[in-house]
Every structure is written in structure tokens, then in C-alpha cells.
């Protein structure tokens, strides 16, 4: 164990981690003679004019050092990022991998490839970085802070720009394999890249690759295999949708009759119920397979005119597996002559003398529901169909993009770029092994026939379903009630634009040697998206997958932008450099109308090697296709405590519960697995989000110590009118604790199950959660980086890199009437996000001697505590350290071998239980933030001819 004092510091320096971002590196690597400079954060390409916004750089070598196959792996481990969807996102998850700067959301981080937008993978406006292979990445630039004046919508938290190697020559192969210390979770990756010169005027690069990752279930990790109640970490945190079957029997408030009862082997019923443990069948690591190809080309048509192009295609297949489907506590009408019922069940379901709270149908509703015949009893049923193995979902995405254009120079110093690009993403989703509610109604409405049990309505080959016993359901019975669903999404993106950049010779300060530089341009962008679901999925008849959404929409935007940078003072006493910059973009959206974004800032260097920088930017995010055009449908949301549940509900609250449809209070069960039904969907009246971002920084890189760099940057980002659906917890709090009025907007929208009084059931039951410009987010903190490189390139050499982020505050407000929650340093249901430590850092040490390089990486996540809405046993998660080691050996020119271990000390994830209330919670931990797989070994080789 590491303890305070000198020893841990020595150990830390010996084992420090691999690739850290260095914010002080130049925005563009030093170009070769004919390289095109790609500058992230500005369209002005003058190396002498440094940016006022911090830009972090991650090199191709750093990517290989930790065996990165999908780029979210390395980005999410760095301190400016929070874990988005990735390889551990089983529930929630849709097979994608996304990046999330500052924890502000994937659709507020703009993703670029060579300075141009990457296409969205679906209508949500996020980019699936699974489709970006690593073989041709020369570096990754991360610009933090708003950048809408330069790049347009979505650059609220910042920009991630994947810069490709379009000058590669020769033939290179790279391959690697990885496996956990338990012998599972294998990962394979191979790529082949070739590049040739096209005479003296151009070149062509083609690269292809294949990647595969095997799945790992939580059941394969003993620590995460049992669903635990977060209140004590001993009791089951599993689901009351279990096996054998459980029944919600209407009863009184003190529980003397009715309540939750479970079938016993002898046919009796017991209130001592066994909850279902759903963890073992959920993925801790998702299976993943990818094929990809990319081609880059450029050719100098004539002096000053270069044609360039890029084509990329990827095929990505990802699977998720959720706990087997269940009847979910829905109410079903049972006939007293059902031969599957035991005597104990008939007494419990039909004896109104013993239980006057039973709901026996009088036949008045039979026209709407044929099973509601006179004498039938409505009973809530909770039966987990473990015989299916799980709800397996397969996501197959085919993504391609074309980019082409002309660039070059006009005269002396004027650079132009004319381009057009088209991208398309098609995602085919198959959702397997769910239950049809109408088929269940039919199959559970069983009577005694001349030849034995039969469905009252035998149409469509109905097979009577016997879930009133402890024996398994037969495959014939399952086949009648099980259904699959399909969803097909297609998004397209077309962009055309042009820019002109250069010097303004006549605009020059008398105290500076260089003139002002400018960039102006225009762009047109069109986004289209459609989602089509099969009729069954659209009907809402599926119990757990809910109601699929048919979405169709489009928008376009026309934009003009301008940028100016000007040196005011250069190399004067007391002022080594003083520069100012500004930018403006006008955008005309077909949806939200006119939008204005802008920036102004500057930098001041009192002496060579010390620079102060600062910038203010107004950024925007226009609502995406999903937010605008998705219909309002039933879905599920997180809620741990229902104010109407339990036996001691206050009278004023009970009156609200009954007004919302509950038949009575006192026997209402708490939400199943912490989930309730919600009504959610889009809103075509949405307008743009607005964000004000401020960055103030210091960069130290003295001439006498050029190998040393230090930077310190303060950031503040404030988003208003953010698009969000109000969390269920907030709506419930507004209704029952603030309004306390059944006619208030919050209370009136809540619809309760007329049988159980709960918030689960058919698609008419739930809590409203429609999208609106209702939320506010504000975050501020510090980014700190330091690096030093020493030694000789031919002998012993070393480098130390450090990158850390301290989050002072991260405040979320779901709507103007709701409380403001502090999320920095917390986890839980109020903020409903990944754990957000106040302090995170990555520290790495590289030691090299001749052909050997040892890379050590230390990833640290600070402690977090439960937020205002969370009250569990483990109220605090301490700081977490992960150590990784990689040894690279250059055998000869162009041949390199890599051996490495991730999570060297096999650090186990924290156990907080499965009823924390946050969506990202799974396997009794937070699998996207903390490592569940454990120690992993990898080996790789690179060969270049």
C-alpha cells in the first residue's frame, strides 16, 4: 500500500503512467517542407501567432503505447474528459463509443477529422468514434472551451480533432493482441497501410484494418456478480421481477392481506421473496468487431492549386446483453378456472371475503379488454423469463465519408481552401427476446378445455402460458409470447464551403514587425436523419424495449465567418509579445433562425518564454434531429423512492397519489430495479443553447530550458437554455415536496397504475419527461500541465509529462424552478452522470536507451461522495490509482515490438451497490469510470518497409 512520505513519491515517479496531454505543445507539429499545416482552433495558419485557447496534443506513439484500438479508451482516461459511451456501456448503451469533454455531454463536444466535421452516427448529434481507426492518426488535438466562432454549432465544451498522416510513404503493418489476467476479454487488432508518391506533385495513402474485442460478463467477476442493495451492501439489490413468479396482490396499507407474494414448489405463496440477480448476464465489456478502410490523396494540379481528397468506410458491430425480459408487474386478468392455479393462488386471487381489496372484474370493460370478463381478477405479475438467456441487442453500423477540395495560394501569402464533403451512417439494430404484452394477455387468460388447459381466445395458435409453478417455461410457450424488434437509422451530412486566409499588409502596428492576419469564409451544411422501426416496436407492445420511435427530419444552415489576429507589440522592453484576436460567425438555421457566435482574446509575453493568455467565446449548440423530431413515447427512467410507496404515506401525499390513478396507498411497491415509466420525446419549438466560456492561462517555456514546459489554465463554461428532459427525481420532488397540489403541472402529468398504484405498467403509465430549453449548467476549474524532456536521442533519454484537472464546481439545474445540484466531487441520482472527481491527473515517465523505451503511466481519479439525492451505505469512494507499463523495442529500422500491462496492480473497482440511482451504475459499480476487467496484458508489433 502507498503511504505518505518520500517512499510513495519515489514509487510514483518510477511507475508513472503513459501518454499525458501536453497543452503547451504547438497547435501544429513542425511541418515538412510541403506539409499542409492543420491548426486546431483557428483557420489562420501563421506559426508566429500563437493561440489564446489551450490545445492539448496526443501523438500516434502515445496511442500505441497503451494499445489503443478504439480512441475513446485513451481520451476518456485523460483529465479533461469524462467517460462517455464505450466498451463498458451495456445499460445504458447503444453500441457506440463517444467522447465527452468536461462532462458536458457527447453532443457538446465537436469531433473533427483533419479540421472537418465527422458525420453523426444517429439522430442524437453525437459521433461514434468506433468508426475512426487509429492506424492513420498522426496526432489528436484537443481544444478546450467554446469554439463556435471558428467551427460552428456543437463546439461548446471544445473540439477533438483527429489529424491524419496524409504524407505516409512505404508499407507498414501493425498488429496487437490483449487478454486479461483471467484469460478472457481478448482484443485483437491488425492494420496495413501503404503510401506512394505521385511523381513530384502528390501522393496516395491507403489503410485498412480489422479489430475484434470479446465480451466479458459481470458474472465472470465475482466482485461484480451479485446485485446489491446500496443501502447496506448485503441485501439483494436485484429485481422483484424474479423466478419463480411473484404476484402483486391488492391489499391494505398495513400489509395484513395482499402484497408481494412468490410461488413456492408446493404451489403455496410466500411473502419472503427472492429477488432476481441481474448482474451475471450483463456485459462488463461489450463484444466489438470492426472492418475499416481509408484512402487519402493529394495532387498539385498546377502551381498554387492542389487537389485533395479523403474516403473512409467502416463496418462496426457491437452487442449488448441485458437481463432476460419479464412481465414487469403489469396487471393481467386471470380466470378462476385456470387449471394452472393452485388452491392457495385461487384463495389469494379471488377470495374477497379474506381480501376485500381484490379487483374482481364485473365485465363492464370487456369491450375494451376481452380478458376483463366478469369474475376475472386483475393481478400484477412479475416473472423473469430466464429461459431466454437475456435481451440481446446487435448494433451494426456502416459509415462512410467523402471529402474533396482544392487548396493553394494566391499570390504572396493568401491561402484558400474550397471543399465539399458527404457522409452517411446507417445503423441497423436488432432487439431480441422481449415479451409482447398483448400476447401475454392472451396466453395468461387460460381456462380448462375439453383436452386440458387452453387459451380462452385460441386465435393465432395461442399456447397457454404456465408461470404459476417453479418449473421452467417450455420453448413452445415462450415462442408464442416472445418478440424481436428492429430499428434502422440513416443519417446524412453534406457540407460545402470555402475560406481565404492571409496577411493584411496595410494593418500593422508600429511596434510590431508582422502585420495582422485574417481568415474569412462561408459554409453550407445540411443534416438529414430518419429512424424506422418495425410496426410491433412502434406500437409500444413490447414490455421492456418499450415503444420505438419513427423519426424523420432535416435542417440546414448557411454560415459566414471571419477571424482576425494581430500582433500589437513585438520584442520591446517589458513586452516581448502582445497579440490580440477576434472572431465572428453568423449562422442562419432553417430550424432556430439566426445565431451569432463570437470570440475575443489575446496573449501577453513580458519576456521570452513566459506568456499569459486569455479568451472569451460565445458558443452555441443548435438542437439536433432527435431533439426536434422524435415523437413523445413511453420509455424508462431512474427513480429509487416513490413518495406514494410504503405504509406511512402522509394524508396530503396520499390524496395526490389517488388523484393520479392509484386505487389506494399503503401497499404500493417501490420502483422495480430503480426504474419507472416515463413519457419523453422531441420538441420542434426548441431553440439553440448558448454558452459563455472564459479561459485564462499562463505558459512557461524559457529559452534557457526549452525542454521544459509548464501551463496553468483557468476555465469557466456557463450554458443556459440547455436542452434536457427533466429528471424523474426532479419532477417527483416538485410534485410531492414543493407543489403538493394534484392539479399542478408536475403532479397532473403523472399517471399511476390503476391496479398497483405504481409507476410501471403499460405505456399509458409514467412520469412526464419531454425535452425543452429548461436546463442550466455551469462548470469551472483549472488545467495544469508540465513536461520535461532530457538526455540524448542516441543514448539515454527520458521525458516526464503531467496533466491534471481540478474542477472547482459543476452545477446542474434541470429547470428554472428546480434545485441547483453541485456535481463536482460527487456521484449519484441528482446529477445522474459518471462520478466526477474534483481532481484527476495522468502522469507519465518515458525512459529510453538506444532501441529500448519503457513507458509508465499513472492515472489518478480523486475521491467522490454521494450527491444530494443519494443516501447509501458507501457514501464516499476514495481516490483511485491505476498504473500501466509498456516496453517498446526497436529491433532494427522499421521493426518495433511492444509488451505491456494495463492496471498493473489489478486494482478492483469500488462497490457501491446497484440502487445508487445513477444511470451509469452497473455491476454494483460505475464500469465506465472504474476498471472492472482488471489486469490486462498486451503484445504488439509494427513493421515498416
UniProtKB/TrEMBL annotation:
<protein>
    <submittedName>
        <fullName>TonB-dependent receptor</fullName>
    </submittedName>
</protein>
<feature type="domain" description="TonB-dependent receptor-like beta-barrel">
    <location>
        <begin position="387"/>
        <end position="904"/>
    </location>
</feature>
<dbReference type="InterPro" id="IPR039426">
    <property type="entry name" value="TonB-dep_rcpt-like"/>
</dbReference>
<keyword id="KW-0798">TonB box</keyword>
<keyword id="KW-0813">Transport</keyword>
<keyword id="KW-0812">Transmembrane</keyword>
<keyword id="KW-0675">Receptor</keyword>
<keyword id="KW-0472">Membrane</keyword>
<dbReference type="Pfam" id="PF00593">
    <property type="entry name" value="TonB_dep_Rec_b-barrel"/>
</dbReference>
<feature type="domain" description="TonB-dependent receptor plug">
    <location>
        <begin position="50"/>
        <end position="159"/>
    </location>
</feature>
<keyword id="KW-1134">Transmembrane beta strand</keyword>
<dbReference type="InterPro" id="IPR000531">
    <property type="entry name" value="Beta-barrel_TonB"/>
</dbReference>
<feature type="signal peptide">
    <location>
        <begin position="1"/>
        <end position="22"/>
    </location>
</feature>
<dbReference type="InterPro" id="IPR036942">
    <property type="entry name" value="Beta-barrel_TonB_sf"/>
</dbReference>
<keyword id="KW-0732">Signal</keyword>
<feature type="short sequence motif" description="TonB box">
    <location>
        <begin position="36"/>
        <end position="42"/>
    </location>
</feature>
<keyword id="KW-0998">Cell outer membrane</keyword>
<dbReference type="InterPro" id="IPR037066">
    <property type="entry name" value="Plug_dom_sf"/>
</dbReference>
<dbReference type="InterPro" id="IPR012910">
    <property type="entry name" value="Plug_dom"/>
</dbReference>
<comment type="similarity">
    <text>Belongs to the TonB-dependent receptor family.</text>
</comment>
<dbReference type="InterPro" id="IPR010916">
    <property type="entry name" value="TonB_box_CS"/>
</dbReference>
<dbReference type="Pfam" id="PF07715">
    <property type="entry name" value="Plug"/>
</dbReference>
Amino acid at each position: 500500500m502507498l503511504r505518505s512520505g518520500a517512499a510513495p513519491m519515489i514509487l510514483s515517479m518510477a511507475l508513472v503512467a503513459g501518454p499525458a496531454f501536453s497543452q503547451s505543445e504547438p497547435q501544429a507539429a513542425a511541418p515538412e517542407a510541403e506539409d499542409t499545416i492543420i491548426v486546431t482552433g483557428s483557420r489562420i495558419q501563421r506559426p508566429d501567432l500563437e493561440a489564446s485557447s489551450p490545445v492539448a496534443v496526443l501523438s500516434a506513439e502515445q496511442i500505441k503505447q497503451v494499445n489503443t484500438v478504439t480512441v475513446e479508451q485513451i481520451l476518456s482516461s485523460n483529465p479533461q474528459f469524462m467517460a462517455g459511451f464505450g466498451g463498458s456501456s451495456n445499460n445504458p448503451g447503444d453500441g457506440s463509443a463517444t467522447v465527452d469533454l468536461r462532462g458536458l455531454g457527447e453532443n457538446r463536444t465537436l469531433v473533427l477529422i483533419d479540421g472537418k466535421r465527422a458525420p453523426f452516427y444517429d439522430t442524437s448529434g453525437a459521433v461514434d468514434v468506433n468508426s475512426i481507426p487509429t492506424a492513420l492518426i498522426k496526432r489528436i488535438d484537443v481544444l478546450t472551451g467554446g469554439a463556435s466562432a471558428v467551427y460552428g454549432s456543437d463546439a461548446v465544451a471544445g473540439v477533438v480533432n483527429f489529424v491524419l498522416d496524409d504524407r505516409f510513404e512505404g508499407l507498414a503493418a501493425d498488429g496487437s493482441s490483449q487478454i486479461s489476467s483471467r484469460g478472457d476479454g481478448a482484443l485483437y487488432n491488425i492494420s496495413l497501410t501503404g503510401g506512394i508518391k505521385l511523381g513530384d506533385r502528390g501522393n496516395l495513402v491507403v489503410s485498412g484494418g480489422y479489430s475484434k474485442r470479446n465480451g466479458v460478463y459481470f458474472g465472470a467477476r465475482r466482485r461484480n456478480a451479485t446485485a446489491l442493495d446500496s443501502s447496506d451492501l448485503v441485501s439483494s439489490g436485484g429485481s422483484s421481477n424474479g423466478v419463480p413468479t411473484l404476484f402483486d396482490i391488492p391489499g391494505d396499507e398495513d400489509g395484513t392481506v395482499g402484497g408481494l407474494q412468490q410461488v413456492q414448489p408446493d404451489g403455496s405463496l410466500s411473502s419472503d421473496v427472492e429477488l432476481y440477480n441481474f448482474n451475471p448476464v450483463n456485459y462488463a465489456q461489450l463484444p466489438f468487431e470492426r472492418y475499416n478502410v481509408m484512402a487519402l490523396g493529394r495532387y498539385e494540379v498546377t502551381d498554387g492549386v492542389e487537389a485533395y481528397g479523403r474516403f473512409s468506410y467502416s463496418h462496426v458491430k457491437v452487442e449488448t446483453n441485458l437481463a432476460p425480459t419479464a412481465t414487469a408487474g403489469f396487471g393481467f386478468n386471470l380466470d378462476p378456472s385456470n387449471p394452472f392455479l393452485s388452491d392457495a393462488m385461487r384463495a389469494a386471487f379471488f377470495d374477497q371475503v379474506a381480501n376485500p381489496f381484490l379487483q374482481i372484474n364485473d365485465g363492464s370493460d370487456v369491450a375494451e379488454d376481452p380478458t376483463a370478463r366478469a369474475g376475472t381478477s386483475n393481478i400484477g405479475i412479475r416473472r423473469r423469463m430466464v429461459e431466454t438467456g437475456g435481451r440481446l441487442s446487435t448494433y451494426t453500423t456502416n459509415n462512410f465519408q467523402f471529402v474533396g477540395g482544392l487548396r493553394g495560394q494566391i499570390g504572396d501569402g493568401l491561402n484558400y481552401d474550397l471543399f465539399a464533403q458527404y457522409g452517411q451512417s446507417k445503423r441497423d439494430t436488432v432487439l431480441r427476446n422481449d415479451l409482447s404484452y398483448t400476447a401475454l394477455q392472451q396466453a395468461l387468460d387460460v381456462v380448462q378445455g375439453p383436452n386440458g388447459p387452453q387459451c380462452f381466445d385460441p386465435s393465432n395458435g395461442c399456447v397457454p402460458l404456465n408461470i404459476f409453478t417453479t418449473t421452467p417455461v417450455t420453448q413452445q410457450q415462450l415462442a408464442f409470447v416472445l418478440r424481436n424488434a428492429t430499428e434502422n437509422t440513416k443519417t446524412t451530412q453534406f457540407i460545402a464551403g470555402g475560406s481565404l486566409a492571409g496577411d493584411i499588409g496595410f494593418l500593422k502596428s508600429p511596434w510590431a514587425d508582422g502585420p495582422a492576419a485574417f481568415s474569412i469564409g462561408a459554409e453550407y451544411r445540411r443534416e438529414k436523419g430518419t429512424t424506422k422501426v418495425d410496426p410491433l416496436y412502434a406500437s409500444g407492445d413490447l414490455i421492456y424495449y418499450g415503444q420505438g420511435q419513427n423519426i424523420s427530419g432535416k435542417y440546414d444552415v448557411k454560415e459566414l465567418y471571419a477571424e482576425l489576429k494581430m500582433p500589437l507589440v513585438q520584442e520591446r522592453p517589458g513586452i516581448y509579445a502582445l497579440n490580440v484576436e477576434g472572431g465572428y460567425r453568423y449562422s442562419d438555421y432553417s430550424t432556430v433562425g439566426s445565431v451569432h457566435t463570437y470570440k475575443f482574446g489575446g496573449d501577453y509575453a513580458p519576456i521570452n518564454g513566459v506568456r499569459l493568455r486569455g479568451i472569451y467565446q460565445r458558443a452555441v449548440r443548435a438542437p439536433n434531429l432527435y431533439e426536434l423530431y422524435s415523437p413523445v413515447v413511453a420509455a424508462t427512467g431512474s427513480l429509487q423512492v416513490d413518495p406514494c410507496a410504503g405504509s406511512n404515506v402522509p394524508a396530503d401525499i396520499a390524496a395526490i397519489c389517488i388523484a393520479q390513478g392509484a386505487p389506494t396507498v399503503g401497499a404500493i411497491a417501490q420502483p422495480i430495479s430503480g426504474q419507472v415509466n416515463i413519457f419523453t420525446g422531441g420538441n420542434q419549438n426548441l431553440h439553440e443553447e448558448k454558452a459563455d466560456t472564459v479561459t485564462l492561462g499562463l505558459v512557461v517555456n524559457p529559452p534557457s530550458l526549452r525542454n521544459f514546459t509548464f501551463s496553468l489554465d483557468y476555465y469557466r463554461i456557463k450554458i443556459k437554455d440547455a436542452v434536457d428532459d427533466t429528471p424523474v427525481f426532479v419532477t417527483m420532488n416538485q410534485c410531492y415536496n414543493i407543489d403538493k397540489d394534484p392539479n399542478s403541472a408536475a403532479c397532473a402529468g403523472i399517471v399511476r397504475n390503476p391496479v398497483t398504484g405504481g409507476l410501471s405498467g403499460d405505456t399509458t403509465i409514467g412520469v412526464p419527461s419531454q425535452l425543452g430549453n429548461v436546463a442550466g449548467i455551469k462548470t469551472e476549474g483549472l488545467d495544469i500541465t508540465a513536461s520535461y524532456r532530457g538526455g540524448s536521442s542516441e543514448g539515454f533519454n527520458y521525458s516526464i509529462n503531467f496533466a491534471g484537472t481540478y474542477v472547482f464546481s459543476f452545477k446542474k439545474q434541470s429547470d428554472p424552478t428546480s434545485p441547483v445540484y453541485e456535481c463536482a466531487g460527487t456521484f449519484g441520482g441528482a446529477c445522474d452522470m459518471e462520478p466526477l472527481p474534483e481532481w484527476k491527473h495522468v502522469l507519465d515517465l518515458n525512459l529510453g536507451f538506444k532501441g529500448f523505451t519503457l513507458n509508465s503511466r499513472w492515472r489518478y481519479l480523486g475521491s467522490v461522495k454521494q450527491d444530494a439525492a443519494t443516501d447509501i451505505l458507501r457514501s464516499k469512494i476514495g481516490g483511485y490509482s491505476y498504473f500501466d507499463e509498456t516496453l517498446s523495442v526497436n529491433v532494427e529500422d522499421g521493426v518495433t515490438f511492444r509488451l505491456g500491462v494495463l492496471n498493473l496492480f489489478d486494482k478492483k473497482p469500488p462497490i457501491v451497490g446497484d440502487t445508487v440511482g445513477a444511470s451509469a451504475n452497473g455491476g454494483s459499480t460505475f464500469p465506465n469510470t472504474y476498471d472492472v476487467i482488471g489486469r490486462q496484458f498486451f503484445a504488439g508489433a509494427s513493421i515498416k518497409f
